């Protein structure tokens, strides 16, 4: 049972951050009053003037204690209000942290989506690069073939020119032979 009381006061301190001072003050006041009453009972009856002074003194002490209790109660109310405000601020911060976590989660998902799109675009660029490299190779082969065809065409023109020249020469020879044989 003793541990239960200690843990409940510890939990009170943990929740509020303030020692529960009001019960301690009340206990002290009770002890003082009991002590004053016990003293008054055990003391010999004093003369009426002394009793009045003693009663006035006790009343003044009680008034001072009441004033201190009132001050302590006000301080506790202020502390309770501050603690309530802190709890509300913590709740608001917790809510905001939740919102920020959701935003971070959403931004992370967007980032992953963008990274995936970037990877896809890189693969596409790689494919286009390979394709363009293949086209460059095909163009280079076509250029080589065109150069070879141009060389063959130039060679054919030379050969055709020589053949045409020979045919013309043969025709001249045939015409000359025909003219010679007809003149004879």
Summarize the SSE layout with pairings.
Blueprint: H1 2-16, H2 21-42, H3 48-183
Helix pairs in contact: 2-3
Order of helices and strands: HHH
Q: Count of DSSP E strands?
A: 0
Overall morphology: rod-shaped
Terminal Cα span: 161 Å
Uncertain segments are: 1-14
Q: Report the sheet-strand fraction.
A: under 5%
Rg is 59 Å
- Would you tell me the overall average pLDDT? 82
Number of helices: 3
Please bin the fraction of helical residues.
Answer: over 70%
Structural class: mainly alpha
Largest sheet: none
Can you describe what's shown?
- The chain is mostly helical and 184 residues long.
- The longest helix has 136 residues, at 48-183.
- Mean pLDDT is 82; it is low at 1-14.
- The chain has three helices and no strands.
- The protein has helices at 2-16, 21-42, 48-183.
In a few lines, what is going on in this structure?
The protein is mainly α.
Top keywords for this entry?
0% strand; disordered N terminus; 184 residues; 94% helix; mainly alpha
């Amino acid at each position: 049972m003793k541990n239960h009381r200690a843990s409940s006061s510890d939990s009170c301190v943990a929740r509020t951050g303030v020692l529960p001072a009001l019960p301690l003050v009340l206990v002290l006041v009770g002890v003082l009053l009991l002590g004053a009453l016990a003293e008054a009972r055990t003391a010999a009856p004093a003369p009426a003037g002394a009793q009045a002074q003693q009663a006035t003194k006790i009343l003044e002490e009680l008034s001072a204690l009441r004033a201190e209790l009132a001050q302590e109660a006000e301080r506790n109310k202020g502390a309770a209000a501050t603690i309530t405000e802190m709890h509300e601020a913590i709740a608001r911060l917790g809510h905001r942290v939740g919102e920020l976590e959701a935003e971070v989660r959403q931004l992370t998902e967007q980032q992953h989506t963008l990274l995936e799109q970037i990877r896809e675009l890189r693969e596409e660029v790689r494919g286009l690069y390979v394709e363009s490299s293949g086209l460059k190779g095909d163009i280079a082969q076509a250029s080589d073939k065109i150069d070879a065809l141009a060389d063959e065409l130039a060679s054919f023109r030379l050969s055709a020119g020589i053949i045409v020249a020979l045919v013309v020469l043969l025709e001249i020879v045939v015409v000359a032979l025909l003219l010679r044989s007809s003149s004879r």
